[in-house]
Amino acid sequence: MSATSRNRALTASATAFTVVASTLAFVAASAPAAQAASCSSTYLSYGSRGTCVKLLQKNLGGLTVDGVYGSGTRSRVRSFQDDANIGVDGRVGPQTWRKLATYGKALGWKAGLTVYMCKENSTDFRVSAWNNSGDNANWLFYTAQSSWPIEGEALADDRIESQGHVYADTYNSEKLVVWVGRYGRDNAQTTTKVRDFSRSTLPACR
Fold it and tell me: CA distances (Å), 59 to each of 52, 74, 126, 158, 195, in order?
């Protein structure tokens, strides 16, 4: 093979590799959105298994993400359905998926309170909270990049509601602090087992 032919072959191989790599990157970036779209029409119930169960567990929060729809997942689904004012049957269909999509992805949970976030547009995030603690609750969500925490209003028990909007970029979660019943240093309950909310991992608000 001549030097010219060899160079042409190498150039073609490099171009093909670039195209394949770009395609794989695009597919990887699109996978979460595609998965969410396909799961939104999937029915789940006790005994179900698979990636849609994992997505459900991630979005609900407060659950081990193992892809197994067991008694813990069913109980959490029933509580969510009750507090979201939709039919309570412990099974997940389009209505429950739509309600979950309204709030987004669970970022942290403690003492019965769960914080959710979704992308409203290119600059704004919607923050919501689910209070299933048995009493009124307040919360603060701390991040590494911000000098002040994301916070919500006092939330009545058995309620899921939007708590406002924040402008943000890609943040690293640090901790969630929850007060159930009253404010006070002795009453604060803290967890650092929280999820980062990089823009690429959050669903679009519905």
Answer: 11, 14, 15, 18, 11
pLDDT for 146: 76
Return the CATH architecture of domain 40-103: Orthogonal Bundle (1.10)
> May I ask the CATH class of domain 105-206?
mainly beta
Name beta bridge partners: 18. Answer: none
State the pLDDT at residue 105: 93
- Tell me the residue length of the chain: 206
For the chain (206 residues), the mean pLDDT of every run of 10, in chain order, is 53 42 39 69 96 96 96 97 94 95 94 94 90 94 85 90 81 92 86 88 86
DSSP for the chain? --HHHHHHHHHHHHHHHHHHHHHHHHHHHHHHHHHHHHHTT--B-TT-BSHHHHHHHHHH-SS--SSB--HHHHHHHHHHHHHTTS--SS-B-HHHHHHHHHH-EEEEEETTEEEEEEE-SSSEEEEEEEE-SSS-EEEEEEESS-SS-EE---B-SSEEEEEEEEE-SS--EEEEEEEESS--GGGEEEE-------GGGSPBP-
Q: Tell me, what's the pLDDT at 186?
A: 82
Task: Encode pLDDT of 56-70 as tens digits.
Answer: 999 999 999 999 999
